[in-house]
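Hi R.,

Here's the input for the shikimate-3-phosphate complex you asked about:
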Amino acid sequence: MEGTSAPSAREAWVASQGRALSGDFAVPGDKSISHRAVMFAALADGSSRIDGFLEGEDTRATAAIFARMGVDIEAPSPSCRIVRGVGIDGLRAPDGELDCGNSGTAMRLLAGLLAGQAFDSVLVGDASLSRRPMLRVMAPLRRMGASITSEDGERPPLRIAGGRRLDGIGFDSPVASAQVKSAVLLAGLYAQGETGVREPHPTRDYTERMLAAFGWPVDHAPGRARLSGGHRLSARDIEVPGDFSSAAFFIVAACLVPGSELLLRSVGVDPRRTGLLQALRAMGADIRELDRRNGVCGAVADIAVRHAPLRGIDLPEALVADMIDEFPAFAVAAACASGTTRVTGAGELRVKESDRISAMATGLDALGVRVSETADGMVIEGGPLRGGRVDSLGDHRIAMAFAVAAQRAGGEVVIDDVANVATSFPGFEALALDAGFGLGSG
Ligand SMILES: O=C(O)C1=C[C@@H](OP(=O)(O)O)[C@@H](O)[C@H](O)C1
Ligand SMILES: C=C(OP(=O)(O)O)C(=O)O
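And here is the predicted structure with shikimate-3-phosphate in place:
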């Protein structure tokens, strides 16, 4: 059975230039797909096997939550789960609060799913998650008839009263967010009639694709999705591809360090996730996708990256949603490029695990980069980086981005508060060292 994982301690890294990066390896499984695989397998009829499951704190929190609601989840080996589904109406009332840890994905998707249950539930999270906005899911779910309250009106904990009748809605989402879209669609599984969502920019469609793969009829195209209540999910096996968002740190590092050549195996390369590849190519990067094949959530490929000098760009706003988790790594690429890079339309970065615009601007400034923040982006002048001390603010992606930056810095970079890397990328340190990073514990 799944248990809850121990909370992370604060730790630091000392990172500095290593050698030219080399290697042929795989990064851990996709976080978004791992969350959804557990959720839909838990609600399916029959047993599903998940291979490539991300052994991260975020996805383990989701699995532990379903175990608390009566789902038998076995872990026969690392990165594998056998989930014995209880059926669409088979979840049991948990005996206390459900802890989503650091995971916005877990909390927002579960808010939708739990709104349709017969029992009451309470979703809580860690300090970072407790600061993140939840009105974006509470408002549409309330329109469907859900009862969801929060003490301050918009932040966790969320109290969800069960036993409510939900009705399908047509929802024009004001924000390009796969989590918001997914929360509404998951409540729609339990609603009377049809639930539809339209988005201002298309976002990852993993909820739509995976529900369909588990046998629930879903009509979807980029930027819109709709489904009706009253169907069932059938168990199936899932092969989770490598997480592009984790691969991104190695891709950027190999672009930046002279002489580097890396091959990253079996990474999910669906266009809704790979805006960073387009941005880096526009900057002059040498990146190839090899042996493209189909996966449960779009194309999977091996990614070959070689060092190439980069030049700054004006990032097209149309790419923002397709590289939303890759901005910390992208900002490092821009800092090491020649010329100026301008990012606009990326205000969502301010409501992630940290304010990622401010965290990157502050950290890059500490390393001697000329950078300025705007309300919804930043302007970065490429140039030499020096050593210094940066704070990840307990944000996994900020910590890994500065480990990459250190590979081009003139001195040691101390990165504070890095334990949170275990939420999305357990084993990052060992893989990075093997590839040639200069990285140690502080
Ligand atoms: O649906 C998902 O799995 C995710 C959606 C994105 O969040 P938003 O929906 O808030 O953009 C992303 O940042 C997060 O890491 C995972
Ligand atoms: C934003 C992220 O995740 P979540 O929203 O699930 O916490 C992320 O992994 O970068």
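One thing worth noting: The chain is about 30% helix and 25% strand.

Cheers,
M.
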